[in-house]
Amino acid sequence: MAKADRQLTEKENSIGESSLKVENISFWDGVSIIVGSSIGAGILSLAFGARQAGFPVLVFWIIVAGIFTTISMLYLAETTLRTKKPLQLSGLAEKYIGNIGSWLMFASVFINSLGALIAYTTGSGDILATMLDVPNIVGSLLFFIPSLLVVWLGLKVTGVTEKVIVAAMTIMVLILILATLIGPGVKADHLSYMNIGFAIPIFSLTIFCFISQYTVPELARGYVQGDVKRLPRAIITGMIIIGILLILVPMSALGLSGPDNVTEIVTISWAQALGQWAFFIANIFTLCAFITSFWAIGESLLTNIVDKLRFPSEWDIKYRLISIAIVALPPFIIAYTDVIGFVDVLSFAGAFAGVIMGVLPIMMLNRARKYGDRDPEWTCGWISHPVIQALIMILFVGAAVYTFLEIFSILPSGW
């Protein structure tokens, strides 16, 4: 009888089939996907975005955004562990909060991803045009071809390549930071300046840097065949690494160049201040930051498209080509119309995605606890207290409201 009960429990908790393939990945593959998804356009824009508010304000919001975004990701982790069928965010939203919630979640993923991919399109084109003396659009194409190839090859390949490039990025940024501290050094007055009148807009930008909720269902697919408790551990580990890097890079760049001399893509002014030798390392780091984030975001967006549009399989060649086209074409079209600035697009994407990612995961978790179809191997515990959930909603919705009022010039610009 005990054996029969155990077999029944295993069957009830088993993972169902869907159009998304289950692939086993390692703990550090998962950490690298999270870090790679966030260490991209956002980290390169933080110093410029915070130049009027000041470094102390930036550090405060990095800590706040990091803590509450991590909690939101852990809500999604428990939600996925309460769900038999492998689903992406829009699929989970549809299951637990209905069709409207599903479309809002898909719109959030799409707009946040599109904002990042636009930034990578323009940024990579500028860098490769400078390095190789080619037109910007050619530089963008040289970046996109290998980027799309990895996305095409799927989650397992994405995890392995992320791990290699994230390690290389970490080494390069540490070289730049050490060269800054040992060489010209940082000036205390550049880092101590603070103007809280520009504080709130910085939160939207830091949200964009941390938003990795769309990677959680991806990682859940990679961990269900092993120890699924790797999922929350990978989320927390990855977010801590992101937070440290988000503080160190603006600290070095602002402390060295000062708020008046920092550029929108921070490595440009950083390399100029350090000398010609740093130009190569800084640009390679920037391209690596773009490509690792592109891989994680592109892979997640592709599978969200497959899930939301109910394609029969993510590996059906016809539907995979359609999904890749949706991932790749809009960024080029928008980027080369030159209608929005690098930092502005990140702030807008962060505000829109932030309000959705701040509210819907709370609703999904609470509904999954009532209507989930399997017993989770891990739960959020005290961090899902209603007070914490309310704080998340207030912070994320408040930042979004400010950003939208700023866009329509009702409130002053943050930068």
Automatic annotation (TrEMBL):
It is a multi-pass membrane protein. GO terms for cellular component: plasma membrane. The chain crosses the membrane at residues 27-48, 54-76, 96-122, 134-155, 164-186, 192-214, 235-257, 277-298, 319-339, 345-366, 387-411. Keywords: Cell inner membrane, Cell membrane, Membrane, Transmembrane, Transmembrane helix, Transport. GO terms for biological process: amino acid transmembrane transport. Gene3D superfamilies: Amino acid/polyamine transporter I. It is found in: Cell inner membrane. InterPro entries: Amino_acid_transport_2. Its main location: membrane. Pfam families: Trp_Tyr_perm. This is Aromatic amino acid transporter. It comes from Lentibacillus populi.
